[in-house]
Structure formats: C-alpha cells, structure tokens
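User: My advisor, Dr. K., asked me to get a structural model of this assembly before our group meeting. I'm new to this, so sorry if the format is off. These are the inputs:
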Amino acid sequence: MAGSIPVSATASPAAPRKRVTPWQEAWRRFRKHRLAVVSALILVMLVLAVLVGPFVWTVPIDEIDFTARLQGPSWEHPLGTDDLGQDILARVLYGGRISLAVGFAAMAVAVIVGTFVGAVAGMAGGRLDAALMWLTDLFLSLPELPLLLLIIYLFRDALTGLVGPELGVFILIVIVIGGFRWMPVARLVRAQFFSLREKEFVEAARALGASRSRLVLRHILPNALGPVIVAATIDVAAAIIAESTLSFLGLGFPPDIPTWGRILFDAKDNLDFAPHWAIFPGLAIFLTVLSINFVGDGLRDALDPRRVK
Amino acid sequence: MTSPRLLEIEGLKVHFRTDDGMVRAVDGVSIGVDRGETVSVVGESGCGKTVTAMTVLKLIAMPPGRIVEGSILWQGGDIVPMGPDQMRSIRSKEIGFIFQEPMTSLNPVYTVGEQIAETVRQHEGLSRKAALDRAAEMLRLVQIPNPSRRVHDYPHQFSGGMRQRVMIAMALSCNPKLLIADEPTTALDVTIQAQILDLLNETKERLGMAVLLITHAMGVVAETAQRVVVMYAGKVVEEAPVEALFERPLHPYTQGLIRSIPRLDLAATEHHRLEAIPGTVPSLLHPPHGCRFAARCRHAIPECTAGEPALREIRPGHKARCIRAEEFL
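Assistant: The format is fine. Below is the predicted structure of the whole assembly, which you can bring to the meeting.
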C-alpha cells in the first residue's frame, strides 16, 4: 500500500490527486445536461446507423420491384417502399451518409472560413477589420436561397463534368452551404479576439517573447474555441436542413443518390396515399437536427464557465 | 575601462495620442540600472512608471503610443529603433517581465508547465521533455512544493501567490540579465507580499540578475531596492540610494510618500491620522506650468510655478527636482 507518507509539510499527500483538465471539466458539466446527453446518444446511434446500417441491411437501394410499389411498413420492408418498389429503409440509411457528410463538411467550411476571417479582422483591427466586417454584412444581407439556386444552376454542370456527378454536386453543395454560413462564426471569433487580445495572459506571453502567430494560435484561438464549437454544432443542423431544402427543390443530388431531402422531394406527390415514404426521412432529419441542437445547448453550458450551476 | 551600464534609459519621452490631445505619459525620464542592482521606481498611479517599464520591452500599444524622444540603451545598444523580431529575442531571454495581475496573467487552457516550457522552447530550442524538466526546475526555484507534479496542474489550481510565483518562474526561465517587475505584489495580500519580495531578493542573489521594480508602496522599496527613482507626473523628481532617500528625502513629494507609510511604532504611543498628500496627479494632457507638484506642495512658493525646475545633484548620488531642495538637507 502507500506505505511511506511524507512527513514534510511541503510534500504532497501520498494518494495521487486526480488531475482535471479543462476538457474533463467541460465533460462533467455537459453530463449534467440530461437532454444533451440523451441527444448525443441518439446522434451517435444515427451516425452509427448510417455508417454500419447499409452493411447490415443489405437490400440494394435501387432494386426496382413493381410488384411491391408504395407498400406500407412490413417485415420485408420495415419502412415500406416507394413508387418503384425500392426499399425505403435502405435508401434512408444510405442517404443519411450523404446528408450527414454534407452537414459536417459544410460546417467545417463555415467554421474554417469564419474563424479565419474573424481572426484576421480581430487581430488587425482598423481598416482591414472594417473591410472584412463590411464583407460579412454583405454576405449576411444576401438573400440566401435564391442565390443558392442560382449558383447551383450555373455551376452544377461545369463541376460535374470536371469531377463526376456525385463528387461534383457534393463539393458544390458543401461550398455553397458553407459559404453562406461563415458570417456568424466570423463575428463571434472577431468579438472573442477583441476581448482576448487585451487579456493579461496574452500581454504576458508577448512580454515573454511570443511571436504574433504564436499569440494567435496558442493563446487566443484556444480560448475563443468554446463559442465556436457551439456555433459549429448549430451549423451542422442548419447545413443538413439546407441540403434537404435544396434537394427538395430538385437542385441537390441527382435522383439516384437518395439523400434525405431527395427522398422527401420524391415522396411529396404521393403524400395522401403513401405518407410513410415522406415520414421516415422527415423523421430522420427532425431527429438529427433536434439532437444536434440539444447537444449544442449542452456544449454551450459546458464550455461557458460563467454559466456554472 | 568603462563598460556600458546594463540598462540606460536616456531622456525618454512617450506620448499617447488621444481624442483630447497628446498625453505626455513619460516626459523625459532617465533611469540607469547596473548589473546585479535593484532599482525601484516609485510614484502614485498615473505618473508614468508602468509606461516607462513597458516601453523598455516595447509592450505599449503603438499607435496610439509613440516614443517621441530619447534612447533605451541595453548593454550599450539602442533598442528604440529595433524591429519586432529583434525585440522578441530580447524579451525574456535578456529582460524578463512580471505583471501586476497574477490571477489573469496565465493562460487558463494550458498547464503551468506547458506555459513555462513554451517560453524556454522558443528561446533555447529545447526538446519538449527537456523544457518540461526545466519548467519543474524553475518551479522548484520559486519554492513551489512538489514541482515535478505541479507542472502538470492548470492555473486555476494555484492560489494568487502561487500564480505570481509561477509568473516569476516563467520570467526567469531563460535566465534574463534584468527582471522588470511591474507592481508584482500589489494584487496579493500582505503576508504573501512579503514572501514574494523575499523570493525576488533571493533569486536575484542566486542568479545575479538586476531588478527594475515598479511599485507605489514605499514599504516594498525599503525592503528590496538599492537605489530609488521617484516619479511624478511623467518626470523623475528624485533619485537616491535607498538609505539616503529614507533618511533625508529632498523632494516634498517623496517626503509626502514617506509620511504616508503607516507606522506601527507611532500608532502605539500617539493618536494621529495617517497623512495623505492632498490632491491628485495633474492631468498629463495639459501639465501645469513650472513644478508639476507645486499645486499639492506644502512648501510651494511663487517661484515654483515660474519655470520647470531641473533635476539637480544636491549631494553626491542624490538628485532632486526642486528649487528648495537644499533647504531640506
């Protein structure tokens, strides 16, 4: 056992004290937010389902069976079939991959662009800051949806010709959605930078000879990360919705790639006699977005030390 | 042979452009520091002590701040014209800096060990492991118990006094020749203040470095400094060895500062209120004509406001900026 207990007053007790990193502390606070924990679990299950699902439920997504058109849920087709007799469960599982991938990739684009713009504006100040904020306001005031439609209409063919239809549309949609979501992140990061760069520890690091890039990357950015992470989760949800909207308007992925929005688009004409076709992909979007938002809520509480309960 | 002084600030003028006009925060200050010496700069809030200290490492915001005149000679070489890269190599490697506020001067997201190690690695290019070992060694130097374990702790796990020790460890980690301490004990309670001052004195002896101590507490001065520079309204008003200054202050402002130290020995025998210097520091936007202290001075005569008094050597090693200084001898 811990036999030798030091006698010296300056020595520590023999039992090793638990070390709490800021991330562990955040995790402890996150766990208190029950709804967020449940949502995180649901989210993990959804992600697992779309990643592993197609290997377990091996029914092909494009097997046409006219003898089984527009059937409701049954053992053979748990979520029913569409007007071509394709299995909806298989299509929802496969489409979820695309929808979630679009969500996360667009979030990454928004966060990277937003953080960069915000950091440059916040560090530079003065005229460059004014110019960048002017650009941000400009983007915020653009009517998003008509512009999205226009951009996709203009560039889809060029890009699909370049890298193939699936990848082309994927890149286009990710860039377009991400390109319209970076502004809140930029404003957030800029505000954080303005307050953090005056903090004593940044001044102290400067006095100790840290270079400008080091100050930004090591001292300011990590401290600004909390709100950015929260904004990022909300962005994932918004991007998934945006992708669904685009697909629903017929401007997203081609029909053979059944994203959740695309399935909804295909189902909309049959709502009165085959509601299951729309309900299940709709439910998937709803659950995903809702749980991401709750997780974002939980993260906000966990990462904002002023809201400790 | 005359080797240059370690630090020689000559006629430094630092002005800040504000909406109301030019603030002459530091208006012709000369301070010298020799190797291994502790020089203390005293004065009340707003008299330019901190700006002087920060200017040495060019830590003031420029703009709005500007070094208008004067030179800062570091071992004989002027650092006023130096660019940011050269300044970086001087910061902490040559001149260490400790701030007033230990509670917020450490980055909350890294362990103290990582923060000390970061400085060491930047300047000496040590490996991660070696830098962490050095960090633990520095924590031992500043007498933090259990240094090899405490390096892995986060700032929030340290008390205020402990954090100031960590700040000192960080400032000393690259063996600077000069340590500038800007009111290192102001934010701490009295018992901890004494510990930190002892620590500063001890490490100074051990490492043989010089210290430029900025403070407004005369008690701190008496305990640590060899030489004292008294600043008032952006100017040096008196400069003397510490014993001479306490024994016979030659500027009325210094006299007021010394009278305003609470004295336990007198309090026991007689009842009287602690003396304060009436009034406040004049605005540095439009400094008064003549002696800047005249309006608050109990010895002021009409001649005081006639012209700016010069800083004169009244007796060997003891300078004062007062036309009546001889009368106080």
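One thing worth pointing out at the meeting: Chain B touches chain A at residues 57, 59, 84, 88-93, 96-97, 99, 101, 104-110, 118-119, 122-123, 145-146, 149, 152-154, 167, 170-171 (CB under 8 Å).

User: Perfect, thanks a lot.
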